[in-house]
Amino acid sequence: MATEIERKFLLDRTPEELIAEGAFNRLSQHRIDQTYLALDEQQEVRVRRLVDEDTGAVEYTHTFKQGNGMSREEIEYSITESIYEQLFRASGAVPLTKTRTTGEWQGLTVELDRYDQLNLTVAEVEFDSMEDAESFVPPDWFGEDISSKREYSNKKVWKELQNRA
């Protein structure tokens, strides 16, 4: 199982504004629909549909994650559209939808997620080690560090979305 180490920050500007200001160099952009099939405090299983906005290519993934905070175990692999559709329909859930703009800032890959169902934009940065994550000094355009705040986790946001549906 691979380890995912990431930090997450609130943003008060849109990806488009940051690109226009020259703070962020855009590499790609995807529309993401994600639905959780099972989750508890320590584990989650989800499916995603990712549509590349530049090429139109579509990818489907199935992911298992374990843990909370900056460092979590993760297994992710591609699935077919048919399997995705079966799992999505069986869940009966409303997907969490967002636009992910991936880019570069000072040699690091940064993902900016703009959520459709809420007024929320976040930046995520993945690291090779906890030491790198802990020593990272974010740029001025990053907001509050929400890496360990569960109320901003995708699974928590998705659960709230289901309660509203």
Draw up the topology in text.
Layout: E1 2-10, H1 15-20, E2 25-39, E3 43-52, E4 58-66, E5 71-79, H2 81-91, E6 96-105, E7 108-115, E8 121-127, H3 130-135, H4 154-164
Antiparallel strand pairs: 1-5, 1-8, 2-3, 2-6, 3-4, 4-5, 6-7, 7-8
Please tell me about this protein's structure.
- InterPro entries: CYTH-like_dom_sf (IPR033469), CYTH_domain (IPR023577), NeuTTM/CthTTM-like (IPR012042).
- With 165 residues, this protein is an alpha+beta fold.
- It has one domain (2-164): Hypothetical Protein Pfu-838710-001 (Beta Barrel).
- It has four helices and eight strands, in the order E-H-E-E-E-E-H-E-E-E-H-H.
- Strands 1-5-4-3-2-6-7-8 form an eight-stranded antiparallel β-barrel.
- Strand 4 (58-66) and strand 5 form a beta hairpin.
Keyword list:
single chain; 165 residues; alpha+beta; Hypothetical Protein Pfu-838710-001; eight-stranded antiparallel beta barrel; 4 helices; 8 strands; globular
Gyration radius (Cα, Å) is 16 Å
- In the residues, how many domains can be counted? 1
Count of DSSP H/I helices: 4
End-to-end Cα distance: 34 Å
Helical fraction equals: 10-25%
CATH topology (fold) name? Hypothetical Protein Pfu-838710-001
Q: Which ranges are low-confidence, i.e. pLDDT below 50, for 5 or more consecutive residues?
A: none
What is the percentage of strand-forming residues?
over 45%
Write down the overall mean pLDDT. 93
For the record, what CATH class applies? Mainly Beta
CATH superfamily, please?
Hypothetical Protein Pfu-838710-001
